[in-house]
Amino acid sequence: MPNPILVEIRRGSLVESVHRGSIAIADCDGAIRFALGDFETPVYPRSALKPIQALALIESGAAEAFGLSDEEVALACASHSGEPMHTERVAAWLARIGCN
Description:
This protein has 100 residues and is of the alpha+beta class. It has helices spanning 50-59, 62-65, 70-77, 84-96; strands spanning 5-11, 14-20, 23-26, 32-36. It is elongated.
């Protein structure tokens, strides 16, 4: 059985799209307090977590301390395929902060 519809997007009275998913809320001891859908199936969010991983860069003050531009912060949040436009920016960033 598919996961339940969690979000329904409408334009007026017309349903434009639906989005299914699962939810699990655990307490501090790890006991499941609420669950909806198949929350035990592993997921591989990969790129979806990059902005969350980049939060430490911002919240620690490192982005400001190293003078990161909006473009560099965006690069830290992004998934990319290592094309020259990406690797050149990362190489310049690393050189600027003294990493080689």
